[in-house]
Specification:
single chain; about 60 residues; mainly alpha; 3 helices; about 85% helix; flat
Length: about 60
């Protein structure tokens, strides 16, 4: 039997690239210390923010 975790590993790599990309974006937008802390939080949880924004747009 073959144990293939290639698809799971590929998803993790894509999610990691998304996190780093979100960190770069949010870090560039920050101006104060509190905004840098928020940028780290937003970088980790960007998919939740994206889904929330999609649901808000669909509700209109």
């Amino acid at each position: 039997m073959s144990n293939s975790n290639a698809s799971a590993a590929g998803g993790g790599v894509l999610y990691s690239l998304g996190i780093f990309g979100a960190w770069v974006y949010f870090w560039q937008q920050a101006d104060a210390f509190g905004e840098y802390v928020l940028a780290v939080f937003q970088g980790l949880f960007w998919p939740a923010f994206m889904v929330y924004d999609v649901f808000v747009a669909l509700a209109r």
